[in-house]
């Protein structure tokens, strides 16, 4: 940018037109701030207003970029939290399912064992009253098992 300063207004317009080409928002902000600071005495009120507008536009851009980043971070955090929640839920579900399965298996095994004992007692010719007291089964349940044996 080799430009003669014979026409300060033209130079100012040229520098101002180059500001949007500065890609990095932080650098663009620095350029505008430097122009405002350096040229405060040399710039007309209109030029200062134009520079300040450019600076406000850059602040808006930075705010938009920040907001986009915040939203993206929030979404990413939500996804990670959801995934972690699903994994923990599956883990808890498996744990609960295994507990229930073990409980059910114990119940079924106990019931089968009691029936086997009742059958053995019936085969040994023990009276129904004794079997009732020993196993806790009702008379009807004992008679049902007797029928199954025959």
Strand and helix map with partners:
Blueprint: H1 8-18, H2 25-38, H3 45-123, H4 128-135, H5 139-149
Helix pairs in contact: 2-3, 3-5
Describe this structure in words.
By secondary structure, this protein is an all-alpha fold. Helices cover 82% and strands 0% of the residues. It has 5 helices and no strands. The protein has helices at 8-18, 25-38, 45-123, 128-135, 139-149. The longest helix has 79 residues, at 45-123. The protein is rod-shaped. The protein starts with 7 loop residues before the first helix and ends with a helix. Residues 1-5 have low confidence and may be disordered.
Compute the number of strand runs.
0
Give the count of helical stretches: 5
Average pLDDT, rounded to a whole number, is: 81
Low-confidence stretches: 1-5
- The radius of gyration is 43 Å
Question: Which structural category fits the helices and strands?
Answer: mainly alpha
**End-to-end span in angstroms?**
110 Å
Overall, the morphology is rod-shaped
Order of helices and strands: HHHHH
- Biggest sheet character: none
Percentage of residues in strands: under 5%
Helicity range of the residues?
over 70%
């Amino acid at each position: 940018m080799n430009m003669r300063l014979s026409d300060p207004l033209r130079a100012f317009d040229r520098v101002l037109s180059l500001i949007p080409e500065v890609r990095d928002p932080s650098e663009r902000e620095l350029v505008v701030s430097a122009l405002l600071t350096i040229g405060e005495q040399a710039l007309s009120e209109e030029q200062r207003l134009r520079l300040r507008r450019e600076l406000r536009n850059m602040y808006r851009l930075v705010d938009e970029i920040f907001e986009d980043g915040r939203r993206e971070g929030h979404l990413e955090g939500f996804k990670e939290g959801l995934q972690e929640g699903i994994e923990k839920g599956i883990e808890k579900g498996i744990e609960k399912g295994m507990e229930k399965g073990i409980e059910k298996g114990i119940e079924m095994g106990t019931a089968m064992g009691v029936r086997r004992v009742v059958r053995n007692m019936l085969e040994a010719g023990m009276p129904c009253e004794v079997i009732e007291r020993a196993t806790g089964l009702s008379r009807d349940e004992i008679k049902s098992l007797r029928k199954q044996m025959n």
